[in-house]
Amino acid sequence: MKHHRVLALVLALCLCLGIATVASAAPAATSFPDFDSTQWYASAVQAAVENGLLIGDNHGRLRPQDSITRAEMAAVLNRAFGTYKTTSIQRFRDVKTTDWFYKDLQMAYHMGTYEGTSASTMAPRRDISRQEAMTVVARALQLNLNRYRDTDLSDFSDACSISDWALPYVRAMVGAGYIQGRSGKLAPQDAITRAEFAQVFHNIIGTYLTEEGTYTESFTGNVLIRTGDVTLSNLTVDGDLILGCGVAEEAVTLSNVTVTGRLVVWGGGTDAVFCNDGTNMPEVLVCRVDNAVKVIYDRDSTLAVYDDIQVGITARAKAFPETEVIFYDISDILEEQENLDQTVTDQQISVTIPADFFLEEEDLVAEGTLANHSEKDTYEIYLTVDGEAVTETATLAPGAALSGIRLLNVMALGDYDATAHVTAIRDGAILGTLQVETAIHVAEQWNLGGDAA
Question: What superkingdom does the record give (predicted)?
Answer without folding.
Answer: Bacteria
